From TrEMBL:
PANTHER family in the record: ABC TRANSPORTER ATP-BINDING PROTEIN, HEMIN IMPORT ATP-BINDING PROTEIN HMUV
Keyword set, alphabetical order: ATP-binding, Nucleotide-binding, Transport
Name of the featured protein: ABC transporter ATP-binding protein
UniProt similarity note: Belongs to the ABC transporter superfamily.
Keyword Metal-binding tagged: no
GO molecular function, one term: ATP binding
Ranges in a coiled coil: none
Domain ABC transporter: 10-243
Length: 261
């Protein structure tokens, strides 16, 4: 499978998680994505977005509910099999990674390695394909720690693509990036044919990126559906506690101001 592969379906059914029975961070979260959907999950800090992502990629075992990829429960599958299906780009970025860009991208091939065998020609081909897909060939010999924030983010996405997943999950992929690099990352994610799930703070970027959108508030998914029906003035105002106005002069775009006290 190449970087141009088509994504898989993902279904979450009544997902809940908390550190103990008296403290739940998310509860009763259900939604379904078709292959190739791009889901933007938005909501205020503490709404449960990152916890939900961790349940979706098996970083956490839900205390209630199940997650299915093409009708297979990911928690009933071996971890290696899940890693072949789902690629992840986390918000935390390594500050000092003593490897070259090519080395980092090749790490995406670990779920496909057999025993202690070294990298195969197929591994190197997939890594090269991912580097080319993200226009990173000229940086392949650079040390990861010497790159800019935007370059590092692209390398980590290339690593996830080299993994040959059907689904890629990203936690705040535009965090700490300048406007140019934010737009580049969103354009890149929009060009992928995989199923993409991302948490995003910027509503306008999310509206441009998403085919589906979800609003998270107080650990629950308060709205889910096509982005144009989820991102409304009333819903966004209620979720974030601010005044939200649609900009009529553009296809998508909102302005925000503090609500009157």
């Amino acid at each position: 499978m190449s970087c141009d592969a088509i994504g898989s379906r993902l279904t979450a059914r009544d997902i809940g998680w908390g550190p103990n029975a008296a403290h739940t961070l998310i509860e009763k979260v259900s939604f379904s994505l078709d292959a190739g959907d791009r889901l933007a999950i938005v909501g205020p800090n503490g709404a449960g977005k990152t916890t939900l992502l961790r349940c979706l990629y098996r970083g956490l075992v839900p205390t209630t509910g199940s997650v299915y990829v093409d009708d297979e429960d990911i928690h009933a599958l071996p971890a290696r099999k899940v890693a072949q299906k789902i690629g992840v780009v986390l918000q935390e970025m390594p500050a000092d990674f003593p490897f070259t860009v090519k080395d980092v991208v090749l790490m995406g091939r670990i779920p496909w390695r057999v025993g202690l065998a070294g990298w195969t020609d197929a591994d190197r081909q997939q890594a090269d394909h991912a580097l080319e897909h993200l226009n990173l060939q000229h940086l392949s010999s650079r040390t990861f720690s010497t790159l800019s924030g935007g370059e590092k983010q692209r390398v980590l996405i290339a690593r996830a693509l080299a993994q040959q997943p059907q689904i890629i999950i990203l936690d705040e992929p535009t965090n700490h990036l300048d406007i140019r690099h934010q737009l580049e990352i969103v354009d890149l994610l929009s060009s992928l044919k995989l199923t993409v799930i991302a948490t995003l703070h910027d509503i306008n970027l999310a509206a441009d990126f998403a085919t589906k959108a979800a609003l998270m508030q107080d650990g629950r998914m308060s709205a889910f559906g096509p982005a144009r029906t989820v991102f409304t003035e009333d819903r966004l105002s209620g979720t974030f506690g601010v005044k939200v106005r649609k900009r009529p002069e553009v296809t998508s775009g909102f302005t925000f101001s503090l609500a009157a006290s």
